[in-house]
């Protein structure tokens, strides 16, 4: 038998046009359409919303006609996500994600039938990877969902829906029509500040003070794909024999990577979501017995013996050794490789290691010459980093170098000694400050 497409109840769309000829829809009808097509919740945001200022150029590049963004929420099943068996959790992520993509396609089909142009970017993957590790997504689903009033981001940096909690996936439709009413951000945050996500994170990416170590999360959770896959390919290319390769990657790791490529990206941990008790539908058992929540949900994830992927000399490596000595530390290279000067400047705050900065307090001026000429100021102080365009303040160290050579140095294609001895790298100030700078970014 031929599989039949899901039958969607009829929702009448009354399409009008404004004075400029742009189609106009009733918000209530568009939201009703999203729900009958399978969205568990939805909301609307104008492309002109100030909260989307960063996203708007990327959205309009992908679909210049965009006037309204329709945010979609898909609910995940909680117990699979909470399971220490990552195959079960990953199946739930992928099944729920594919379902949400199909919901978006059904809505686009119905809008097209009504004469309304619309576009549905992917819920997660695939992405626009041309400039990776710079921005690869067309639109930030979390930012749109927040602006639409569908939740707020918690300490774990995931959106917390007021009803479904952290157990949601998000998507966004770009619609070439105006609507008569848009949503507004929630006036409260469902996050409980319980910090169970901080306690459960195997690499310490989430800090008690709210700081997020992006690189720690990237290196461990995304090790089987994205930048971790690049390192894997380079390891294969550099291996002299099968034995040499096996010294770098275990049999199980190679099979796991194949599974990730065959069945969808395998996330090594989503413990921050799994342990989160926020949300009206979720919080009841936690309020009734917090100790039982810890025993049944948090402890199995913390106690699991598993490989944890960290960069040698990083804050994450120290965290695993201190908090999870029973887990197997697996040293890897940094997953996010700078491929341009812009990528280096954008990536610094994401890969900065506060613990390695210690008491360093310095102002660095970078002068990049060549095709990617740029000037930038980096201030490291009180275990925090700030990166600015141009020169700000008086520098403690000034670094001048051709941008392409700096990128080659970052990717270990040329040594620092060679750059200094050939005059390709010029320093004004103490070389010790350059060494201190390097310790903040172990690779």
TrEMBL record:
Keywords: Iron, Iron-sulfur, Metal-binding. Residues 182-211 form the 4Fe-4S ferredoxin-type domain. It holds the Pfam family SCP2. InterPro entries: 4Fe4S_Fe-S-bd, 4Fe4S_Fe_S_CS, SCP2_sterol-bd_dom, SCP2_sterol-bd_dom_sf. Gene3D superfamilies: SCP2 sterol-binding domain. The keyword Metal-binding applies. The keyword Iron-sulfur applies. It comes from the Bacteria. GO terms for molecular function: iron-sulfur cluster binding; metal ion binding. Transmembrane segments: none annotated. This is 4Fe-4S ferredoxin. The lineage of its organism: Bacteria, Pseudomonadati, Pseudomonadota, Alphaproteobacteria, Hyphomicrobiales.
């Amino acid at each position: 038998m031929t599989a039949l497409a899901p039958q969607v109840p009829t929702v009448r769309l009354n399409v009008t046009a404004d004075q400029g000829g742009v189609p106009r829809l009733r918000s209530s009808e568009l939201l009703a359409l999203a729900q009958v097509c399978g969205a568990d919740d939805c909301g609307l945001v104008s492309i002109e919303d100030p909260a989307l200022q960063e996203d708007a150029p990327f959205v309009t590049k992908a679909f210049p006609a965009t006037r309204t963004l329709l945010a979609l929420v898909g609910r995940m099943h909680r117990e699979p996500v909470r399971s220490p068996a990552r195959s079960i959790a990953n199946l739930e992520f992928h099944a729920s994600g594919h379902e949400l993509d199909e919901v978006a396609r059904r809505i686009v089909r119905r809008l097209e039938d009504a004469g309304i142009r619309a576009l549905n970017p992917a819920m997660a993957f695939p992405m626009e990877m041309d400039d990776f590790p710079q921005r690869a997504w067309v639109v930030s689903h979390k930012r749109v969902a927040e602006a639409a009033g569908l939740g707020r981001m918690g300490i774990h940096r995931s959106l917390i829906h007021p009803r479904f909690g952290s157990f949601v996936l998000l998507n966004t439709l770009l619609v070439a029509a105006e609507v008569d009413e848009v949503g507004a951000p929630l006036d409260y945050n469902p996050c409980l500040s319980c910090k169970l996500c901080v306690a459960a994170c195997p690499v310490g990416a989430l800090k008690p003070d709210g700081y997020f170590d992006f690189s720690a999360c990237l290196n461990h959770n995304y090790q089987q794909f994205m930048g971790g896959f690049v390192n894997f390919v380079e390891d294969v290319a550099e291996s002299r024999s099968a034995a040499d390769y096996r010294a770098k990657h275990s049999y199980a790791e190679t099979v796991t990577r194949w599974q990730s490529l065959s069945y969808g990206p395998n996330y090594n941990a989503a413990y921050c979501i799994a342990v989160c008790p926020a949300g009206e539908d979720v919080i009841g058992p936690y309020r009734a017995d917090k100790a039982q929540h810890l025993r049944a949900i948090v402890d199995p994830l913390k106690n699991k013996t598993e490989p944890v992927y960290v960069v040698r000399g990083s804050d994450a490596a120290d965290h695993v050794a201190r908090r999870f000595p029973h887990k197997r530390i697996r040293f890897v290279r940094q997953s996010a490789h700078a491929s341009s000067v812009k990528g280096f400047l954008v990536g610094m705050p994401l890969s900065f290691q506060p613990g390695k900065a210690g008491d360093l307090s310095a102002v660095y001026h970078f002068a990049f010459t060549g095709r990617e000429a740029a000037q930038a100021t980096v201030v490291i102080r009180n275990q925090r980093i700030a990166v600015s365009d141009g020169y700000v303040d008086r520098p403690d160290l000034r670094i001048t170098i051709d941008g392409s050579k700096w990128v080659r140095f970052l990717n270990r294609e040329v040594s620092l000694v060679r750059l200094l001895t050939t005059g390709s790298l010029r320093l004004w100030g103490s070389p010790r400050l350059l060494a201190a700078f390097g310790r903040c970014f172990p690779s």
